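Work through this:
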Amino acid sequence: NGDTYAIDLAGTVIPLPQEKTADGKLAAYVGKSLKVGIRPEDMKDDEEFLEKHPSSHIDAEVEVSELMGAEIYLYLTYKGQNLMARVAPTSKSRRGDKVTMAMDTHKIHLFDPETELINSNLNFLGGSAPVRSRLLLKQKRKQLRKRCTVAVRRV
């Protein structure tokens, strides 16, 4: 209908929530590439999470499954991109498995590839002081080390 934005992650189109795109900033990036980041805890493989996020499924291969006690870190490969997920210790995903993962699209962060400025979800910065915002942005960039390139579409 033309008022919804989506990211194209290596051929998988994932719609973005309206509240992430309501400010209109993504309009300038339609047809262009952005970097995308998502934290490991916002990507999961359990049935409940998959059902809750049906429009963001990807099929990935588990390269490493690292049991950390209260959680498992899954190091994944998806169409040449390296991803990481933090899943429940009850996950059955193991090295070599092909797994279906889902992302919480409310937690996706988009970055301009040249300036590295955030293009969506600015509300996570908290506070309006420029110095505070710059410090938080620097911390956020460190947390989102692995970023894939995506194309932005209007659907």
